[in-house]
Amino acid sequence: MNKTLLSLVLSISFLSAFSQQDSLLKNFKYRIDHYQAIGLNVSGGGNYRKFNYPLGNQKYSVSSGGFGASYYSFKSTDKIQLTTSGALYSSFSSAKTTSVNDFTKDRNFSISPSFNVLNKWFSKNNFVELGAVGNEHYNTSKHTGINYPGKNRQGQYSIEINTGIGKGRLENITDMQNALWLNQVLMATKSLSRSLTAEELNGLGQAITKGNNTRVLDARKKTQFTLTTVDAYLQQQGLVNKTDINYFSNLNDILFYAFNEPRLSGMEKYIRFTPSMTGSSNHQTQTITSYRYKDRYTNKSIELTSGISKYSPKNLLHQNNYGSFLKLGYLSNDVSISSFDSTGSISETKNNSVSKLASINLFYEHAIYPNTRTIITFNFQSEFGYFKTEFSKGLFGRSSLYGAINYFISYRTRLTCNIGAEYQKNTYQIYLGNPGFPENLNLYANVGVNISL
Description:
This protein is α+β, with helices and mostly antiparallel strands and 453 residues long. It has helices spanning 2-27, 174-188, 198-212, 219-236, 245-257, 427-431, and strands spanning 32-53, 56-76, 80-98, 103-123, 126-144, 150-172, 264-286, 292-313, 318-340, 346-371, 374-389, 393-410, 413-425, 440-451.
């Protein structure tokens, strides 16, 4: 009888703990009045080589450099969710080669600006959204010498406008996840006098958010500020039983090394209208032969989507994400290719293809968080529908199924493993205007260590 009662009490406590985790994760509100970050990068280098050949010496030298700047801003209040980012990167290089019979120079320059803005305005449980994404890459090179001197200019660009209305909201619950992990580890090491209540755990999650999203330029002071903010909250609640080395090492471990991917909670129902345009161009000129080549690709599209997405944390260890949406699309692909030789002859090709499509899209993902270092995901995505072009029509589809493991070793090192399968039929005919590309099945598996130096 006593064993039965004990098992019943333990089962109720277990279910109560998981139910509390579920409720806290689902109801956490990620609020930041205004967070912004700026990144700058400057680099440069050079190389010199000398080769002693029987017929003469050859010298090679190269110098290169680059500059990058980025900006990120995020705001999350009850009425606004605003994300803004932008970047500008450029690089250049200059190389010289000197030999007995030749002297060549190669110069390259590239620049890549980009931006991303998305704003959602909330009124009760409804929202209106407006945003835009754009990027461009431009590269120019020049070759001077006896063999094929000439110039080359390349450019790519894309811009997309996002507009929509909907109901619901998705919240970032990563800080609440870490608050639950922190409560567990501090209780296990008896650093707390008791386990935190649901209200106190929510407050701990908000303290972690404050510590992570307050700008402090000095990285050491930033670490101190984050630790002090979370410790001050626990001290104010009268929860800290002892402040030994284990207490602070556990604070540091959860706050700075619990690097799982961001978790979301909530549901969205939406209707979105998305016009976009992408393009590329290439212009080559050879000085001696007077040969010139130009090509230009322009893709325009309009999409109307209506769907639902739900991100549901079951508890601290498990999460289910799923959704579906209907899509109506119109795509136009324009191609122009021309070349001119030394005799003045011109070869020119122009082509335009239009595709219309209607499809249904589905996705499902189950994520497992066995500890603060690891995430295991199983993901399925599919799109099936009907398309019509000037020359053909029919069904198209693509689907993918994969599983992945991501283990955090350090800030610069991660262990990754993934396995999956992808299937496509007629998608190249719609998006790339290539009817000759066959249906294909791709199976893959990868394992490795990612190291950033």
